Amino acid sequence: MAPPVPLKAKGVPVINANYRRFLTRTVASLVSVAILAGGAAAQAPVTKGGTLIYLEQQPHTNLYPPAGGFYPNGGVLNQITDKLTYQNPKTLEIEPWIAESWTVNADATEYTFKIRPGVTFSDGTPLDAAAVAKNFDTYGLGNKQLKQPVSEVITNYKGSEVIDPLTVKFFFTKPSVGFLQGTSVIGSGLVSLKTLALPFDALGDATKIIGSGPFVVKSEVLGRELVMEARKDYKWGPAKLAHQGRANLDGIKYVVAPEDSVRIGALLAGQAHVIRQVQAYDEKQVQSKGFLIYAAPTRGVNNSVVFRPDNALVSDIRVRKALLHATNAKEIVATLFSANYPQAQSIIASTAQGYVDQSAKLAYDPALAAKLLDEAGWTVGPKGLRQKDGKELILSAYESPPQPQNKETLQLVAQQWAKVGVKLNVLAGDAGSRVADNLDPAKTPVAPAMVGRADPDVIRSQYYPTTRNVLMQKGGVSQKVQSFVDEKLNGLLEEIAAATDPVKRIALVGEVQAYVIDQAYTIPIFEEPQAFAASPRVKDFTFEAVGRPSFYATWIAPK
């Protein structure tokens, strides 16, 4: 994508002194890094080499590939694992990678892949049909003994058959139309049999993830830094990429820097080459210094507020519709974000497959909101809060640190809802309580949510009860309420997963968008990108189809 035009300077943030010393030591330890040959971004590097310094907002968690949806995880996995296929981020076409070719039967219940010869994992073991079969048997069926969960991108999986050393066939109990695209996503990264033999809890250690990718994990200080080195014998990148062979860089050093000012300051001071999670309010000063902002689209379910209808306070559709119309998404985007965060016009992004504009149903209308609350029996009490049957309409939501300015977004939503007499408590909480309570609609009736994937199946991933289940159908983990199930929604999601007619599938995507908004299950706020900033010396910095960084072709020009 073309970088935005730089704007005028507004100064450089101060870097925390302790962290400045740490970064200085980091850079000093890399004095042998060659900041080498230059040229335009689209040109091949004159000279290769060097180590790229990458600052990440959060440490990765578990690196079991189906857990790669968490962006810090995906940023690591995308460098060290290959996928069976490659989704072109511009055209969204599925192209050859580890699979040279494939065939799909008429009802999408059988997929056969021919594997590229000569590919090996970094431990020297072959990436052959047997290894591919074991990967997808694990991702498609899970492993209860090792506590490895089923991948959310694989539906109706039955099993595999190794036809010959380089041919594998997959079988499904029902049509699984999204499987081909599912073989290209970060959650389908291929790992060695040794890695698959480890329990889920052991896979937070990046040194245990043995992939076939262009980089190999050399060392890790958990929660702090990760060092990768280029695999010298790598020669099996996606078939249609301009760059082939080993990576241009010698290595990558990931450093975890939670503070926004630290990441920005390090970048502008020349102590880092690329940083992730640039807040919208920092974009202008980054660009004013000649640095580049990249806002890679995630092409999936928009950044939203979702309701859990199993909670009595939001079980009434009139209450949910009232809060939808009490939410001014335009004000949120204008106040907190930039043009890189378009206001949502549906539950999925305008760049997503099957998008249908639902903006007419999302209008900000506080008068209508008040009327709906009145009709639902929630009247304004003496403290200005809506009350009914002796209860006040007080809701709670936990902030989601991975989502950009999520605390501030929820706080602005709370201000907007207060105008119609509804209180929203925005909670921080430790990671443990936040995760546990978010799974319980009795404790958390409102929650932020989004998910990226460049396939219509992303909607099923978000709403279906056996995947992310953001509506907490069947009560989530709550023991108090287990009544809410939307069979119509679930049926539509199952049809999306199984529809072999592409026209029908896209029509179903439109139907689901309208239905979810009509039921006021969610309030779309904005289309969430993955926002990065980079030195102009960083060339050929690219992304996979939903915004994870790829450093395979990247190189660093001289000062």
Key traits:
559 residues, alpha+beta, 7-stranded mixed sheet, 4-stranded antiparallel sheet, 15 helices, globular, disordered N terminus
What percent of residues adopt helix (DSSP H or I)?
25-40%
Which strand order spans the largest sheet, edge to edge or round the barrel? 8-9-10-1-11-21-12
Task: Please describe the biggest sheet, giving its number of strands, its sense, and whether it closes into a barrel.
Answer: 7 strands, mixed
> What structural class do the secondary elements suggest?
alpha+beta
Give the overall average pLDDT: 90
Provide an overview of this structure.
- There is one protein chain.
- This protein is α+β, with helices and mostly antiparallel strands.
- The chain has 15 helices and 25 strands.
- It is 25% helix and 21% strand.
- Strand 2 (85-87) and strand 3 (94-96) form a beta hairpin.
- Helix 8 (317-325) packs antiparallel against helix 10 and helix 13 (457-463) runs antiparallel to helix 14 (487-498).
Write the layout of secondary structure elements.
Blueprint: H1 17-28, E1 51-56, H2 71-80, E2 85-87, E3 94-96, E4 99-104, E5 110-115, H3 129-141, E6 157-164, E7 167-172, H4 179-182, H5 193-196, E8 215-221, E9 225-230, E10 251-256, H6 260-268, E11 274-276, H7 283-288, E12 292-297, E13 301-307, H8 317-325, H9 329-336, H10 366-375, E14 379-380, E15 386-388, E16 391-392, E17 394-398, H11 406-418, E18 423-427, H12 431-438, E19 446-451, H13 457-463, H14 487-498, H15 502-518, E20 522-526, E21 529-534, E22 538-539, E23 542-543, E24 549-550, E25 555-556
Parallel strand pairs: 1-10, 1-11, 17-18
Antiparallel strand pairs: 2-3, 4-5, 5-7, 6-7, 8-9, 9-10, 11-21, 12-21, 13-19, 13-20, 14-15, 15-16, 22-25, 23-24
Helix pairs in contact: 8-10, 13-14, 14-15
